[in-house]
Amino acid sequence: MADSFIQFGLIILVVLAVSIVVRLLKQPLIIGYILSGILVGPLFLNLIQSNQTITIFSEMGIAFLLFIVGLHLSPKIIKEVGKISLITGIGQILFTSVIGYFLGTLLGFSVITSIYIAIALTFSSTIIILKLLSDKDALEKLYGKISIGFLLVQDLVAIFALIVVSSLAGGAGASDILFSTVLKGVVLILVLIPISHYILPKFSDFFAKSQELLFVFAISWGFGLSLLFLYAGFSLEVGALIAGIMLSMSPYSFEISSKLKPLRDFFLISFFIILGSQIIFVDISSLVIPTIVFSLLVVIGNPLIVISLMGFFGYSKKTGFMSGLTVAQIGEFSLIFIALGMKAGHISQEILSFVTLISLITIFGCTYLIMYSEKIFPKISNFLTIFEKKKTREKDFPKKDYDYLLLGYNRIGFSIVKAFSKVTKKFLVVDYDPEIIEELNKEGIDAIYGDVEDSEFLEDLGIFKASLIVSTVPEKETNQLILDVLKRNKASPVTILTGRQISDALELYKSGADYVILPHFLGGEYVSRMIERLKDKRENYKIERGKELKTLKERLKKGHTHPEVEKDKK
Known about the structure:
The chain contains 23 helices and six strands. By secondary structure, the protein is mainly alpha-helical. It is globular. Helices cover 70% and strands 4% of the residues. The protein has helices at 2-24, 29-40, 52-71, 75-106, 111-120, 126-135, 142-170, 174-207, 211-231, 236-247, 253-277, 288-312, 317-324, 332-343, 349-371, 373-384, 410-423, 434-442, 455-461, 476-488, 502-511, 519-534, 538-557; strands spanning 404-407, 427-431, 447-449, 468-471, 494-498, 515-517. β2 (427-431), α18 and β3 (447-449) form a beta-alpha-beta unit. Strands 3-2-1-4-5-6 form a six-stranded parallel sheet, with helices on both faces. The protein folds into two domains: 51-387, Up-down Bundle (Na+/H+ antiporter like fold), CATH 1.20.1530.20; 404-557, NAD(P)-binding Rossmann-like Domain (Rossmann fold).
């Protein structure tokens, strides 16, 4: 026990040292975690003598991550992006496997080896992508939702592929195992749906009376369903995800999510350490050309397949591009699949090392592509136009001009729309959530779907014709883009923007913003002015209380919840 503790302590110290260096170099921390795994692995320090503890921690991190993602995937969101996720997920797998197979045979690999390599190239690392999307606050964005959807489709296909290879290695009937697994999964979901709809809300209300009890309940529910689905033949990830989805309709889903995030981040480090430590290098000098070719297929080919499919179904080039980057690597399922093939005697150790190297190259490449995607997109935007239909589902521009524009509805926008409606009828709301647009249109409010992070969209929308613009998007880069578009068109409407940090506000003011909202400070400012106005007259506060209660009930009807505390990006 003491040896395991010392071993784990040394590993964490190595992770800290590498992470500090990576942070000083302004590189993504995921890269630091994987590099730490390589350092503590058998190639260098060999600190992982027995990886049982780290493996358990790794599995816990994966479970927490998928559980938290599930908490944000309500049935409404699944309905919204389910179709395109299914089509894109299956389409990408088919195209990548076919292209990969023909490339394999052209490069001199045998038929069976080409099949294994081609299938391995189709599976991305859901864990890595979810971590990157979470770090970018992109899980709630349209491309984030679609990406989660088709990555989960990949995972399900990967599970079935692993079942087939395992059954072939053991001499069992693959079709029987697949049928029984699917049947168990369907039965479990059918049983869980009424439980989550009728029984869970009553239990969650009881547990919510104690913060500690709610915490224990959430962990127990997540691990309980993970083990149940694992026993049924599915992966830990599938069970954890479904456990989160079942709790997503609970009013306490955001609170549960915020409580579990520190645990997720701690245990997830172990996953990346394991991933790095398992990287094995043997002499594959004869496979340099195939390594480059297949890495390019994954890093460039896979995204192009996704962009093409999404463009065909009417999504904008930016949504397709951002979604496509999430499949620009191969992950843990690919390595497990190849390892099982080697165990079954179908392929050699050399192929496992070969695919491992491709995995390492593509994970590093994909991480940088996603982290710097906002800077990359404008440089290749013109080229990507060929993948976009003239009329996309994300561009339904109004035929009239508007005096006031609200870019991003969310929680702040609710109050701003009320103010707009008192001043003018010529105002427009732009948001990337189709449900919000539909709801606003039903209320008689002009609203369109669109991505305000796309400069072409802003140009086509004609924001330079407005007299007042309010952006509730907190990303500094997006607000800077809005100011750049206005400056380029020599327009100077009143611009009210939103920032996360004081430094963001100062930069936006310097660039020409008229006012910058800092949500963290707004509450204090409002209360201070209210105290100055109302002083200590209780009757005055009763009037304010009545107004606030009315507003809160309105928000509750619309499904608004208090946001999680935003993390400091600095």
